[in-house]
């Protein structure tokens, strides 16, 4: 008999149907030469300190750092888990071969391997690797099972991540709690990813609180009802601008050049998990955790592909399937109609095998939508579907006009942009209009100047001249904004760098904090620990969070850049470009150094 082990009962039912295992038992299916069983996510975990030696059951600075000579795993002590594990263990002893049907990712690989190790598995194992749960995808996956050894680097990376979190999280939490907790204080939770994330939030909050606004005055002039900006730097006192205004007021403005340049704007990239969470937070206010749960549900309902991905690209073999996927999106047929009868566009910004490792970007599967989708599921699916349709539309083309002018010895410039062909933007026209209206409402009087600059530019001619109305415009510098969950996810993805450009963000992903699948959980942990709180959409650090970051002097624990480097090494372990043993050795050396530094602190600070 062949044993299939999935990650949850619902997936087990899908696979049992495909392989013909139609007899339901308690904890598994059987039939057609197959057993199909499941885990409930993690059944096993790394052992606790006390499992290695009774000495480590007590919290004492004398025993730090705690580093086991060899890490071990144990079954999570819950009755339902113990019962299901016994089912799996029994079936492994009966089977001749195992097909690992866990979620096709680093965490899924770790979950399944630990269960098989704990059960003492000695039989051959193959791997089902699929990006969607449609019947077609499952059948194709069974026709192309992978050897278990092909996934060994992925498992080693997942194991290193778990061990690294144990070494830093358990040791640093005990170390800082024992050293700095006040008489009435609680646990001081420190972690490999959560602490640098908290440090980002605290740093931003302190920048806002310590911000001193500065006024400057820009010189502008209005000619033919259109605003020109001076090439002079903004003035620090208004009198300097007033002096020039008086000088140029009686002089005519002359157009010295008019330059027109055509350009194009490509459609936005497809979604990876982080960019989907960012967009859902921006548009609907959904938390990162809510969006992850929603897209996971859409995946299990077979209407979206695997969600825990960090690429925005598709592989070339997906391209021939895209036409049928589009035709399956019946409720978007008004948007798909213009694509019919023509060859679908194939852009290198969408299809690139070299940018895809385990899974491609999140796209619809083309399966009919169930009638019982929740409002949140409909909204998230709408984001995914429209983004997928958009990549096959033409670029948005525009004409950029730059007019330069002179008044006496002073130079001025005005720019205008005219859309020639909306292209892909027609798909989001309604969304853009709503966002613009909301944005304008929020700007109040401050946005009036910007609206003036958005007016259609007159047809200026080189050499023309005439009267103008110079004026000074006051600008007050603004503090940085508090993080929202969306902007925090962006910051985690780029290790704190403030990046909007999509191409640059792609390049910085290699050094991001955490993985796409874990970032939502990290933010939730910080809420749970009461180190951060939500004020409307903004994230604020609590006093406990500020104090904790304040006592951590070692940048190794709170630097986003350094944590990003560790994440990069974990990805390199997946690609067999870096040694797992070297990664663990470096973390052991790091926690030893941190322990030494904290123990030598004689400041007697308490939280």
Description:
- This protein has 22 helices and 18 strands.
- The strands form 4 sheets. It has a 7-stranded mixed beta sheet with strand order 2-3-4-1-7-8-9, sandwiched between helices. It has a 7-stranded antiparallel beta sheet with strand order 15-12-13-14-11-10-16, covered by helices on one side.
- α9 crosses α10 and α10 packs across α13.
- The longest helix is centred in the first third of the chain and has 29 residues.
- The protein is flat and about 95 Å long.
- About 2% of the residues have low confidence.
- The protein is an alpha+beta fold and 607 residues long.
- β7, α4 and β8 form a beta-alpha-beta unit.
- The N and C termini lie far apart (59 Å).
- 43% of the residues lie in helices and 17% in strands.
Key attributes of the depicted protein:
single chain; 607 residues; alpha+beta; seven-stranded antiparallel sheet; flat
Summarize the entry for a quick read.
With 607 residues, this protein is of the alpha+beta class. Helices cover 43% and strands 17% of the residues. Helix 9 packs across helix 10, helix 9 packs antiparallel against helix 16 and helix 16 packs across helix 18.
User: Using only CA atoms, what is the Rg?
Assistant: 29 Å
Poorly predicted residue ranges:
443-453
- Beta content: 15-25%
Distance between the termini: 59 Å
Helix and strand topology:
Layout: E1 2-6, H1 9-19, E2 23-25, E3 28-31, E4 34-38, E5 44-46, H2 49-52, E6 73-75, H3 79-94, E7 97-101, H4 106-118, E8 125-127, H5 135-143, E9 146-147, H6 152-180, H7 194-209, E10 215-223, E11 226-230, H8 238-248, E12 253-265, H9 273-284, H10 288-300, H11 322-327, H12 333-336, H13 375-390, E13 396-407, E14 410-421, H14 429-443, H15 448-453, E15 465-466, E16 469-476, H16 485-493, H17 502-508, H18 516-528, E17 532-535, E18 538-541, H19 543-551, H20 555-558, H21 560-574, H22 580-599
Helix pairs in contact: 4-6, 6-21, 6-22, 9-10, 9-13, 9-16, 10-13, 16-18
